[in-house]
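Design request, tokens follow.
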């Protein structure tokens, strides 16, 4: 399949006549190196094989070109990119909200939820929210966040220490590595 695309392709690869370098390093369709030759000679070899000459590594000295079926190359490249995208894991930040007058059993339930988030590879933001008169006792409630972090020392590390932001105190936990 011969592509007579005289313009640059979308992914900035040069193809066939678009390659303007004097000398290029040529790799055959089977993967063996044919050596350094002029781009015209390389293009003749590609046309004889009824394939395309594609500049794969433009920054090399001399640039590397490969004799391949360009449509097939482009298809396989998009497949590899899709597979890589599918396999990557995005780290989310899960939030757990607490209040200063939380009971020990409720705290244990929240700790178990955080443990579940951490084992899935997510980061956890623990927010201690203050309302009304609770604002006057912020310093005495700071131990709740430290107790929370102590309960998760086996599987988590404190990424950002507790700090006050407006009406809440926040702390970030990440999975231990």
């Amino acid at each position: 399949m011969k592509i007579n695309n005289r313009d640059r392709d979308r992914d900035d690869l040069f193809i066939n006549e678009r390659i303007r370098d004097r000398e290029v390093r040529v790799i055959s369709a089977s993967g063996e190196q044919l050596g350094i030759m002029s781009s015209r000679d390389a293009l003749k070899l590609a046309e004889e094989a009824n394939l395309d000459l594609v500049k794969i590594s433009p920054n090399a000295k001399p640039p590397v070109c490969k004799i391949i079926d360009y449509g097939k190359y482009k298809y396989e490249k998009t497949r590899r990119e899709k597979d890589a995208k599918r396999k990557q894991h995005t780290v989310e930040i899960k939030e757990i909200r607490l209040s200063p007058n939380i009971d020990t059993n409720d705290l244990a339930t929240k700790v178990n939820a955080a443990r579940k988030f951490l084992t899935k590879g997510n980061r956890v933001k623990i927010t201690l929210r203050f309302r009304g008169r609770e604002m006057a006792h912020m310093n005495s409630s700071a131990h709740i966040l430290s107790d929370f972090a102590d309960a998760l020392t086996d599987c988590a590390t404190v990424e950002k220490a507790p700090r006050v932001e407006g009406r809440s105190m926040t702390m970030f936990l990440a999975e231990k590595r």
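Comment from the thread starter after seeing the answer: thanks! The radius of gyration is 30 Å.
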